[in-house]
Design brief:
Helix Hairpins, single chain, alpha+beta, 12 strands, 455 residues
């Protein structure tokens, strides 16, 4: 899906929205669990403290009851409601705020003399109270064994009335969840802002202008690494496209001359009937051959870049000796090779490097060409040395450019294409090696380095 700069993704496709929704759901769930637990904790804590106090007041009053005498109740500020009720539900003694109606109908048993209850009369506030049964011995002494009950209680605190506590905690939980969600939205937006900037910049880049780069945030986090990787990829892509355009321009220029010569010869045969057609065709064949040579080397160069080749263990010393022995014409070639210099690569391509280097050296040498194969640490080393004029230091990299031909090369090989050394370096790079020109007392010293085959 392509996105134009300045457009926004629908919320359903937005990572920021999806992350925020997920966090919102989790925060609501967590807030609900915490809120429910907090409600139960607060209720139990408040009720527990109240029931401790009501049980204390009821116990103290029962303890003050003596033979034939029931002292008046002793309500407190925290427990203002105190009553004594007989077995028939009549209030026999009560505090000033307890009224004349029993606070509860709960009747504790002899086995369980205390019960904590919450009574909620109609249209009246709920009351938290402790129902206590007067011990049997005191009941016999005071009322001839008739059971009596003490009720000590207080009005339910406002925080526990109705759903007020749940509402307050729910509102706090909702506020906390909303704050958590808002923070997540802002944090996700801040994290994704560099990615949106990268996306917008990437949508602006096209084949006509590859010089643009994505914004690169500071730091070493994943987004910064993504931006650096994207810029490195864009740099490699720009370099590749630039090389391709330069290569296409050079190819067009190199093919233009032989094509022009071929066309001129053919047009001459057509315009002048007295011209011998066979001679005109014969004169045009060298131009066609040069075009064929350029095209073949171009195809080999492109195939090497784009098509993987089969590899095998290759005895580089034996290959160098074989290629040197095949050079039976021109300046003599002297080969020396260490035994067991083995590399992993394509035999045909490696042979083409050695052949090209030997042909080039014979072309520029005066009396002899030396080629050696040996080891240099973890690399195999092939050195081709001639005794010619050598290569100027400023030209040592230029000669490996496609279609680059120095003046001496044009003079010694007018029909050359200038792709031989470029193809050799490309083959070396494809084998994780290198090819360069190094210093030498006399002549040109070409050095090929390839990783040694181990194991």
């Amino acid at each position: 899906m392509s996105i134009r700069p300045g457009t926004f993704l629908p919320l359903s496709n937005s990572i920021q929205a999806r992350v925020t929704l997920a966090v919102a759901a989790v925060s609501v769930l967590v807030a609900a669990v915490i809120g429910a637990g907090l409600c139960l904790l607060i209720r139990n804590r408040v009720e527990s403290e109240i029931f401790i106090e009501t049980r204390r007041v009821a116990t103290e009053w029962i303890g003050l009851m003596q033979r034939g005498q029931v002292p008046p109740p002793t309500p407190t500020a925290r427990v203002p409601l105190v009553q004594l009720v007989d077995s028939r539900g009549r209030v026999t003694a009560a505090g000033p705020m307890a009224g004349d109606r029993p606070l509860s109908t709960v009747r504790p048993t002899e086995e369980n003399r205390f019960r904590d209850v919450t009574e909620c009369p109609e249209s009246e506030p709920c009351v938290l109270l402790t129902a206590a049964r007067v011990p049997s011995l005191q009941s016999w002494e005071l009322w001839h064994g008739e059971p009596h009950f003490v009720y000590a209680g207080t009005d339910q605190p406002p925080v526990l009335r109705g759903q007020r506590l749940e509402f307050l905690i729910g509102a706090g939980g909702a506020l906390l969840a909303a704050l958590w969600t808002w923070t997540t939205w802002r944090a996700a937006g801040r994290i994704l802002r560099p990615i949106n900037a990268i996306r917008q910049r990437m949508s602006e880049i096209n084949a006509n202008d590859l010089s643009l780069r994505v914004p690169q945030p500071s730091g070493r986090d994943e987004i910064a690494q993504l931006a650096r990787a994207a810029n490195q990829t864009l740099g490699r892509l720009e370099s590749a496209v630039t090389r391709q355009r330069e290569f296409a321009a050079i190819v067009s220029h190199e093919l233009k001359s032989p094509l022009t010569g071929l066309r001129t010869g053919l047009e001459e045969a057509l315009l002048y009937p007295e011209t011998d057609a066979r001679q005109a065709i014969a004169r045009s064949l060298p131009a066609a051959d040069r075009m064929q040579q350029i095209i073949d080397e171009m195809l080999a160069f492109a195939r090497l870049r784009n098509t993987p080749c089969s590899s095998e263990p290759v005895d580089l010393g034996a290959l160098v000796r074989a290629e040197a022995a095949a050079r039976t014409t021109g300046v003599p070639v002297c080969a020396r090779a260490e035994p067991g210099v083995r590399v992993f690569g394509n035999r045909v391509q490696l042979a083409s490097i050695v052949t090209n280097l030997l042909v080039n050296a014979q072309r520029h040498a005066i009396g002899q060409v030396d080629v050696t194969a040996g080891r240099d640490g973890a690399h195999a080393l092939v050195v081709v040395l001639d005794d010619g004029d050598g290569v100027a230091e400023e030209d040592r990299e230029r000669i490996f450019e496609p279609f680059m031909r120095l003046e001496a090369g044009r003079r010694l090989d007018p029909d050359g294409s200038g792709l031989g050394l470029a193809l050799c370096r490309a083959i070396a790079a494809a084998h994780n090696g290198s090819l360069c020109v190094e210093d030498s007392p006399r002549g040109a010293r070409f050095v090929l380095r390839l990783p040694l085959l181990t194991g």
